[in-house]
Design goal:
It contains ten helices and 21 strands. It is of the alpha+beta class.
Length: 427
């Protein structure tokens, strides 16, 4: 018997999902546990699988369209089943924008506009429209926000791109295909100087679910959490020598980065300072026995912090391999929820971008985060002599409900000592 297929909850914080693409087409049969579609959630692209076998009779939410949890996105059942009743029910309840079956379709009272009729979803929530001379869709191009942004960033002429989404909508995969195929870029118009300068033009694009969660979490952090900052300079020469010695003994694929060493040292320091490896829980302080380190990774739509579990128990090579694997998953949006939630402390390193010093925002409920800058050769005084040392600035953001000033300072002191004298790690 045909039934509605609802948008499932694919991540702990998911409230809405955007169909990235349907893996199967209308009319295709599928088995239990087979992937039906890929869905962009607030954190990653997740595979949506079937609980039982059947046939995909009707897609109600196409690629690029969003649906709230529990909203009808498709009709499944057996081949040839009459689904007009379900479509009518869905349309009546307004839980999905279903098109009536062709045999029962309402007559258009204004025949002249038949060719310009848009699906209900398009009419209710206008997508990003780009006007040009194209005859597609009555002289308009329908472009998803992501596709519009990608086209703008790559100077792609949208008029030369064929849309594969609903009603010819240009979606992300069309731009990716255009980039791969070398579609001609928009012609560069000669510069025409003008003395008339008005207010800057702008465009509004819907925010992604990931960006919405980032904004919400960061506002939650910087607002109610009483935060203070501690900065320390660390001489990194011995740590760099340690890294050089390790990498001299391993293959290219196993090499350790400075950040891998920082993760290990931070984890070792955290277990020595339990109030830093803790979180405020309203009427209790939760102390963690292991150091689960969140490592900030920049992805296309924001920032995500995959977690190295029990980093205090792992060696440099194991941490390096795990971070490489997690970062690759993060950039391809393949991280599972358990891989990016539940860190006890986080590290954000912008040293590779030439940043010397910055502050990071705490990711609740963690009590602190380290903002790590790059190690740069700096003249310093040692034993009355001016010498050059590689100095790295580290700033820790502290949740004052858990971490007091002296507590944070002692943690940084341990962290600094371990990096400046790595032999301490063996004690």
């Amino acid at each position: 018997m045909a039934e509605k297929f609802l948008m499932p909850k694919l991540s702990p914080t998911m409230e809405e999902g955007q169909i990235s693409r349907w893996v199967i087409n209308e009319g295709d049969a599928f088995e239990a546990n087979e992937t039906l579609a890929e869905v962009d959630t607030d954190k990653a692209t997740m595979e949506m699988t079937a609980l039982s076998g059947g046939t995909l009779l009707k897609i109600l939410k196409g690629a690029g369209e969003s649906a709230a949890l529990g909203e009808v996105i498709a009709i499944i059942g057996k081949p040839g089943e009459d689904i007009s009743g379900l479509l009518s029910e869905v349309s009546t309840n307004g839980t999905a924008k279903a098109e009536p079956p062709a045999s029962a379709g309402p007559k258009d009272e204004t025949p002249a506009s038949t060719s310009e009729k848009q699906p209900p979803a398009e009419a209710k929530t206008p997508p990003t429209m780009v006007s040009n001379d194209s005859s597609v869709n009555g002289g308009r191009l329908i472009v998803s926000p992501i596709a519009a942004r990608m086209a703008a960033e790559n100077s792609i002429d949208l008029g030369l791109v064929a849309g594969s989404g609903p009603n010819g909508r240009i979606i992300k995969r069309d731009i990716e295909k255009a980039l791969a195929g070398g579609v001609p870029k928009a012609a560069v118009k000669p510069f025409t100087p003008s003395t008339v300068v008005g207010a800057s033009p702008f465009r509004d694009e819907p925010t992604s679910k990931m960006r919405q969660v980032i904004a919400s979490r960061l506002a939650e952090s910087i607002g109610p959490i009483p935060t203070f900052y501690l900065t320390v300079e660390i001489e990194m020469d011995n740590a760099l020598e340690l890294r050089k010695a390790i990498n001299a003994t391993v293959d290219e694929s196993e090499k350790v980065s400075v950040n891998d060493i920082i993760v290990k040292v931070a984890a070792m320091a955290l277990v020595k300072h339990p109030f830093v490896n803790a979180s405020y829980q309203d009427k209790a302080i939760r102390f963690y026995e292991q150091a689960d380190i969140g490592v900030a990774v920049a992805v296309e739509e924001g920032l995500i912090t995959p977690v190295v579990r029990g980093a205090n128990l792992k060696g440099f090579l194991e941490i390096a391999a795990e971070i490489k694997d997690l970062a690759a998953k993060a950039k391809s949006r393949k991280l599972q929820p358990e891989e990016y939630t539940g860190a006890t402390f986080s590290i954000s390193n912008l040293g590779m971008f030439g940043i010397k010093e910055f502050t990071a925002i705490i990711n609740p409920p963690e009590a602190g985060i380290l903002a790590v800058g790059g190690a740069t050769p700096t003249p310093v005084v040692r034993d009355g002599q001016i010498v050059v040392r590689n100095i790295m600035n580290v700033t820790m953001s502290c949740d004052h409900r858990v971490v007091d000033g002296a507590t944070g300072a002692k943690f940084l002191q341990t962290f600094k000592q371990m990096l400046e004298q790595p032999a301490i790690l063996l004690v």
